[in-house]
């Protein structure tokens, strides 16, 4: 079995053979309210806080302030991480 990276959700990890394959591209699809945002945010947060892995979360549906507040409801505190703004300048 190849090395796997936890998704941050133990039930999902059981379903997909122990986690995601490192370096793979994961596409999450689904209707509103099914958990795409929290799954991807938790994956990035766990990678950063447990393993020191960098991550990027891009969202066009809500402000940074709203995103951070919403994630705190799921015990995912992005305020503790270094947030960097990307720009061309």
Number of helices: 3
Radius of gyration computed on alpha carbons: 14 Å
The SS-based structural class is mainly alpha
Report the order of strands and helices. HHH
Q: Which regions have little confidence, pLDDT < 50, spanning 5+ residues?
A: none
Integer average pLDDT: 84
Structural shape: globular
The rounded distance between the terminal residues' Cα atoms is 44 Å
Please describe what this structure looks like.
The protein has 89 residues and is mainly alpha-helical. It has 3 helices and no strands. It has helices at residues 10-15, 36-51, 64-72. The protein is globular. 6% of the residues are buried.
In a few lines, what is going on in this structure?
With 89 residues, the protein is an all-alpha fold. The chain contains three helices and no strands.
Task: Sum up the structure in keywords.
single chain; 89 residues; mainly alpha; 3 helices
SSE layout and pairing:
Elements: H1 10-15, H2 36-51, H3 64-72
């Amino acid at each position: 079995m190849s090395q796997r990276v936890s998704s941050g959700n133990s039930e999902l990890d059981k379903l997909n053979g122990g986690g995601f394959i490192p370096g793979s591209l994961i596409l999450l699809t689904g209707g509103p309210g099914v958990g795409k945002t929290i799954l991807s945010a938790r994956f990035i947060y766990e990678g950063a806080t447990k393993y020191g892995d960098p991550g990027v979360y891009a969202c066009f549906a809500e402000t940074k302030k709203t995103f951070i507040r919403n994630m705190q409801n799921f015990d995912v505190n992005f305020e503790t991480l270094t947030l960097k703004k990307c720009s061309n300048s």
